[in-house]
Write a structure and sequence with these properties.
Blueprint lengths: L2 H20 L4 H4 L10 H20 L4 H4 L2 H4 L15 H6 L5 H21 L9 E4 L4 E4 H9 L2 H15 L7
Antiparallel strand pairs: 1-2
Helix pairs in contact: 1-7, 1-9, 3-7, 3-8, 3-9
Length: 175
């Protein structure tokens, strides 16, 4: 297996898991927080997609889909390219309201499609060592580190799945 296929498979799994988590959720379930310091399913999925979108934009040298396609309006958020949820306080998380599961899924799908296109058409082995400066983060990191950072967000999708399981009980996966 080539490394590109391996990386594509990881990103496809991330999206598929998010799709399973978001399936059949009401707005109340999407925004449910198990405790005052906890994240909601909607916030976790949004944060995962936002982080990937911001990092992708830096890699591609293009505008974030969040801004270009005005996803911030669909999520009733301010136009802030740095707002990905990173560093949010419990109060900020509590104030976040995901609009609905389909909007969350559609945004994540757009980000995932863009990631796939990049890996298939522009990513090369030598590219992994290239350093990319992030205007929004104020730091330079290699392409490899940026990809690993977004892959690491699988943990957030797992957390969202756990919250859904708490809320819905056994069988939340639909199996």
């Amino acid at each position: 297996m080539k490394y590109e296929q391996f990386v594509l498979d990881i990103y496809a799994r991330l999206f598929h898991e998010a799709e399973l988590v978001l399936k059949d959720l009401t707005e109340e379930e999407l925004n449910y927080r198990p405790g005052p310091q906890s994240n909601s399913i909607g916030w976790l999925v949004w944060h995962t997609a936002r982080s990937q979108d911001r990092m992708n934009a830096d890699l591609f040298g293009e505008e974030q889909l969040w801004i270009r396609d005005q996803w911030y309006l669909k999520f009733n958020r301010e136009l802030d390219p740095k707002d990905t949820g990173f560093g949010h306080t419990a109060v900020q998380v509590a104030e976040f309201r995901a609009p609905d599961a389909l909007t969350c899924l559609n945004y994540y799908q757009a980000v995932s499609t863009r990631t796939r296109e990049y890996i298939l058409t522009r990513l090369s082995p030598s590219d992994l060592e290239r350093e990319v400066f992030s205007q929004s983060l104020g730091v330079a990191r290699t392409v490899e580190v940026r990809l690993l950072m977004t892959i690491n967000n699988l943990q957030h999708i797992g957390q969202a799945g756990y919250v859904k399981g708490m809320r819905k009980g056994v069988g939340w996966y639909g199996i």
